[in-house]
C-alpha cells in the first residue's frame, strides 16, 4: 500500500470538507470547443512539457492502447488523447504540444495555453527533464501562474543519476508548492506514484500551494492590482485574473481579444447573457 500521507507541497483537506471539493473542475463546454469530449470520463488531465523530455513516453505508458489522434479544431497541429482508470475514476489524458513557454508566440504555445486556461483541466502534469531542470522549470512556473492543480513529473531520473546529478525531489516539491514525482517512464518506474498524485489532486484529496512570483517592482504591482480589479469587476469568479492581467501587460493580443469577446465569461461560469455578449472593455494602467 502506498503511503497516503501528504508529501511536500501538498496539504490534506480537513475531514468533513464539502463534497464539492471532490467534484471535477474542468470546463466541459470549453473542452468541447477545443475538440475534447468528456462524455464517459470523470476527469481530464493535460500533459505538458518541453520537447524531448519523455512526455510521449509518459503518455504511452499511462494510456497503453487506449488512445487516438486527431487535429486540434481549426489547426494543423496533431492532438493525441487517451484514457486510463485509477481507483474509481476514469481519466482522459490529453497530450499537449511540446513547448518551452505559454507566451503564445507560436501556434503550439497558444494551443497549450488555451487548453490550460480555458479548458481548466482537473490536473496538469508537467513533465520535466531531471538533467535540465533550470530550463524546464520556466514552463512549470508559467503553468503555476494559471492553475494550482499541477503535478510535476520529474522524468529521466536514470540519466540524471548517470550524469552525477542529484535532485532533491522533496525539496523541489516544497519550493514549488506542488507534488513532484520522480520517474523513469520508459521503464515504468514511478508511474504508480504519478497516478496516485494525479488522483489525489483531481479528487480534491490534497491541495497545493503553488509558488508564484511576487517580487515585482512597485509600479508593476500597482498596474497588476488595477487591472485585476477591473477584470474581477466583470468576472468575479475568474480563478486566474492575476495571470490574465500579467498577459495583458505583456501585450498578449489573443488574451485581450478573449476578454473583449466575453470568452473569459465562459471560464468564469457566468450567466448566459454575460458570457455571450461582446465587451467593449478598455483597461487603463496608470
Summarize the structure.
With 286 residues, the protein is of the alpha/beta class. It has helices spanning 28-33, 55-63, 107-119, 133-146, 157-162, 169-176, 191-203, 218-234, 241-249, 253-261, 263-267, 272-276, and strands spanning 10-12, 43-49, 67-71, 78-86, 89-95, 123-129, 150-155, 180-182, 206-208. The protein folds into two domains: 24-208, Rossmann fold (3-Layer(aba) Sandwich); 218-276, no CATH class.
Gyration radius from CA atoms, angstroms? 19 Å
The count of helical stretches stands at 12
CATH architecture of the largest domain: 3-Layer(aba) Sandwich
**N-to-C CA distance:** 56 Å
Number of strands: 9
What is the total number of structural domains?
2
- Name the strands of the widest sheet in spatial order: 3-4-5-2-6-7-8
Helical residue percent band: 25-40%
Class inferred from helices and paired strands: alpha/beta
Relative strand content: 15-25%
CATH C-level name of the largest domain: Alpha Beta
The CATH homology group name of the largest domain: P-loop containing nucleotide triphosphate hydrolases
Q: Choose one word for the global shape.
A: globular
Largest sheet: 7 strands, mixed
Q: Pick out the low-confidence regions.
A: 1-19, 270-286
Mean pLDDT: 83
Q: What name does the CATH topology of the largest domain carry? A: Rossmann fold
- Element order, helices and strands? EHEHEEEHEHEHHEHEHHHHH
